[in-house]
Amino acid sequence: MIQIVLPFDKQGDNSARMANRFPWAGPVSKAGRFILDFPARWMLPRPCGSLSLRGIVARAISVFLLCHSAPPLPAQELTNSPASEYLRGQDLVESGQTAQGLGWLRQAGTNGLLQAQVTLANQLWLAPAGRPEALHWALLAGQQGEPLMRQRLIGDLREGDPGEYFQAAWPWLQGLAAPDAPDMQYRSGIWAFNGWGTAKNYGLAFTNLLGAHQSEPLRRQAPQGSFLMGYLAENGFGIPQDYTAAAGYYWDAAEHGWPEALYRLGLLLEHAQGVRADSAAARVLYLSAAEHGVPAAAYRMGTLTQDAGAPSLPEAFNWYLQAATNGLSVAQDRVGMAYQQDWLRRGADPVTALAWFTVAAQGGNRAARIRMEDLERTLMPAQKAEVAARINQIQSSIHKEALAPKVGENLLPDSLAQRHLQLFQAISGPASNRPRRLADVGLAAPGQPAENPKERRNDLAAGLLQIYLTDLQDRVRTLVNERLTEYGKNHPLEMQNLPGEMEIILSYRLLSDGRIEEAEVLDSNLGDVFNGLFISALRDSSPTPRWTPRLRAELSEDYQDLLLAFGRRSSLRISQ
């Protein structure tokens, strides 16, 4: 509405006269002004740029009344009226003087005129660099109760926008997230999952995403909803853990174009979690996910290919390189190993290896830091001088791109699309084949509730994970001592060649279900035979106890790449 403010004398003669002549006008204000409200749309230009007939009449009436009502307003008071500021701004914009017109509109909006705030938001949203200011005016209009601005603000906010906008819009979004508005239910689920405008609430996120999931059109248009529901069900965040339900949601997300769902579904198939074990199907899914740009899937393809033996190392290198240039530090460490060990059969390249180890170490990979320190000590000064330039080349090649959904495209490979019922058949088998629960070994009480995950921890020797690491180290030490004793009975002379204090660092990946993968010697003062004893002891300690929901919540991934050290010097190195 546009407000026309008319003066009247304090004895009320003018006010009574105005009320009789203009019964559609607003009430008399306490400040001694009579307010006429015109719908703002009367004042807005038509597409051709001319005023509507009602707009012309409204302006004519306002000018007449402003000129003939007594006593007149002081000139300064009239100039500073938000309504007059708005009118002047509109006139300037219509005449092509956009910058000056926006200035008057901003002044009117700052003085609280709703229509000025709405106009500014709509106009600035169309400007190339106007979005940040448009959000500001939409927020002010929304705070005055303007429903369209509330909805537009909710729809336009994205990660990185000021937190106060999310906080103000969160209760509006909750009010709109009704069963007949699946798009708002979906958006509410996304906000609750990410903690936008409120604390992270996975239970509420799942509830709202599930409500939106009932809409087939929305499932097709927003496959991320199905993917996040699978993630919550897989990890037991906000709802009881349910691998079968997670697999179903991942399947649905992949059918509608979410690439990462292929990778997560592959993990469940490989590890027989909620679905039948099928390593061949898992590999097909990993390959498809990697081809769609999922770094973790490319890394998994690298490890599976590397396990096939030396002839497959060049192919494994290509998969690791794909994941490494997408910013995955564990893959960057593998690329460094490839250059150091000459996987490509072109000759070892320690300079490039050191550069990749350095980049991986900067990304938080502790195994890469150990390799970097060891390799750096072996290089000549001239070689060290080349490393900085090589690091710059590597960093310029790294591009952490967000995965682009293929909305409306079925990403499931044709070989699997028809096997849904077969893969989702009930699992049977002895419970002893599954990893043990933590309660079974007395490390913690059962029934701990799931919590929201926190940021990934760098100090892996702290928090709940230390329980697992200490238990694992004790088990490996016990197995090594038993095997050394047995070996010494048959090879007493070789036992005499052991150093006074054994130093060895092992790297491995610990999965949330307790399994150990990718075990290898990182550094050692022992020979191959004794290194093998430690590796076999580590592998034979798998599976370790399952992670509790509380530990799973403490870590942002369902695995951790870890180090295990024996010997005083080695323990000191991995703690740095």
What does this protein structure show overall?
- The chain is mainly α and 576 residues long.
- Among the domains are: 297-397; 439-575, no CATH class.
- Helices cover 58% and strands 6% of the residues.
- The protein contains 30 helices and five strands.
- The chain has helices at 13-21, 40-43, 53-68, 75-79, 82-94, 98-110, 114-125, 131-143, 147-156, 163-176, 182-194, 202-213, 216-221, 224-235, 243-255, 259-270, 279-291, 295-306, 313-324, 329-341, 350-362, 366-376, 381-397, 414-417, 420-423, 465-490, 492-495, 528-540, 549-554, 568-575, and strands at residues 2-7, 33-38, 504-511, 516-524, 559-566.
- The strands form two sheets. Strands 4-3-5 form a three-stranded antiparallel β-sheet, with helices on both faces.
- A hairpin with a 4-residue loop joins strand 3 and strand 4.
- Helix 19 runs antiparallel to helix 20.
- It starts with a strand and ends with a helix.
